[in-house]
Amino acid sequence: MPIIKHEIYIEAPIHVCFDLARNIQVHMETTSKTKERAIGGVTEGLIELGESVTWEAVHLGIKRKLTAKITEMEKPYRFTDEMVKGAFHSFKHTHEFIESGTGTAMKDEFAYISPLGILGKLADRLFLEKYMQAFIVNRALALKEIAEKKCN
């Protein structure tokens, strides 16, 4: 099971970073390259514990749908979303926020299992893990930019 970890420092208060990371409109803005949009469940505002959202996006040239549910939340320090339906066999994405100096360290841990058994494992090695790493990093950079503009 691939586990992607990423950490970024954001010059903004922890509560700002936490709320931006779970804001549906901000998610769509930070994933515009994949045309991600909320089409079911919570489709605007802040997603909360126990709520779910269905996303439609274009990944690897194919339009896909995925439903994720918030399974853990400790405001403003951590929340976890898990896939309940979609292209992966499963995934668990933990977002962690730690006050650091005058800002916030934002940590992502994305653990997933690809579908299709051995073929999925091959896809991980050939391209999928790198693709997902870039997706996580690009979203974090976009969140950083939004948070720092908002607070400066």
How are the elements arranged and paired?
Blueprint: E1 3-10, H1 14-21, H2 24-30, E2 37-41, E3 52-59, E4 62-74, E5 78-85, E6 90-100, E7 103-113, H3 117-151
Antiparallel strand pairs: 1-7, 2-3, 3-4, 4-5, 5-6, 6-7
Helix pairs in contact: 1-3, 2-3
Question: Can you walk through the features of this model?
Answer:
The chain is an alpha+beta fold. It has a single domain (3-151), classed as START domain (Alpha-D-Glucose-1,6-Bisphosphate, Chain A, domain 4). The protein is built from 3 helices and 7 strands; from the N terminus they run E-H-H-E-E-E-E-E-E-H. A 7-stranded antiparallel sheet has the order 1-7-6-5-4-3-2, with helices on one face. Strand 6 (90-100) and strand 7 (103-113) form a beta hairpin. Helix 1 packs across helix 3 (117-151). It is globular and about 45 Å long. It starts with a strand and ends with a helix.
Compute the CA-based radius of gyration.
15 Å
Q: Shape, please?
A: globular
The name CATH uses for the topology is Alpha-D-Glucose-1,6-Bisphosphate, Chain A, domain 4
Helix content: 25-40%
Low-confidence regions = none
Report the strand count.
7
CATH architecture: 2-Layer Sandwich
Give the full name of the CATH homologous superfamily: START domain
Order of helices and strands: EHHEEEEEEH
- Bin the strand percentage: 35-45%
Termini separation (Å)? 40 Å
Strands ordered across the widest β-sheet = 1-7-6-5-4-3-2
Q: Which labels suit this protein?
A:
single chain; 152 residues; alpha+beta; 3 helices; 7 strands
